[in-house]
Amino acid sequence: MTSSLKTRRFRRGATVAIASLLALSGCGFSPYDLPLPGGADVGDDPYTVTVQFRDVLDLVPQSAVRVDDIAVGKVTKIRLKGWVAGATLKINRDVKLPDDAEATIRQSSLLGEKFVSLSKPTEGGSGRLSNGDKIPLDRSGRN
After folding, report:
1. Which residues pair with 3 in a beta bridge?
2. Residue 33 has what pLDDT?
3. Where are the beta strands (DSSP E) in 1-143?
4. Cβ atoms 50, 87 nearer than 8 A
5. Which pTM was predicted?
6. How many alpha carbons fall within 13 Å on the CB side of residue 108?
7. CA atoms within 13 A on the CB side of 43
8. How high is the pLDDT of residue 22?
């Protein structure tokens, strides 16, 4: 095989690789969009809740949402607005939480993944958390 043929094949391969990367980046491809195996079953009609945190540590999209250490949902987005981070959660509609639920970021083990833990307050809870509700800073953990 001549060196010009090798060079031509290398250039063709490099061109295809670069074109593929550009196409994927233009489509908004993100590794966080890939589903993780073993995640929570959010059902066919989950509801969405936004939680405000001062610091989300290294929480990432696709992280678990748990109630009493049972996976009931997942984090879909994390956005920063000013000095406050907002984590968007999708929660299985069968999970009933009071409208004054509290949220904290916890870790599954010493070196484990971070997840959002939702809990019922010790007092209160007359209503029910529903689609589009927010859990403000005063009801999220001190991270």
Report:
1. none
2. 62
3. 47-53, 64-67, 70-81, 84-91, 102-107, 114-119, 134-135
4. yes
5. 0.73
6. 14
7. 13
8. 73
Angle ∠(118,121,126) on CA atoms, nearest 5: 105
Residue 133 contacts residue 110 (beta carbons within 8 Å) = no
Name residue 95's amino acid. Answer: V
Collapsing DSSP to helix, strand or coil, 107 comes out as strand
Binning the chain into helix, strand and coil, the percentages to the nearest 5 are: 20, 30, 45
Q: Please, what is the Cα angle at 79 between 87 and 137, to 5 degrees?
A: 50
Helix (H, G, I), strand (E, B) or coil at 26: helix
Torsion of CA 52, 53, 56, 61, to 10 degrees: -10
Q: pLDDT tens string for the chain (143 positions)?
A: 567 777 888 888 888 888 877 776 666 666 666 666 667 778 889 999 999 999 998 899 999 999 999 999 999 999 999 999 999 999 999 999 998 999 999 998 888 889 999 998 877 767 899 999 999 999 997 65
- The residue whose two tokens read 């295809």 is 16
Among 140, 116, 1, residue whose Cα is nearest residue 59:
116
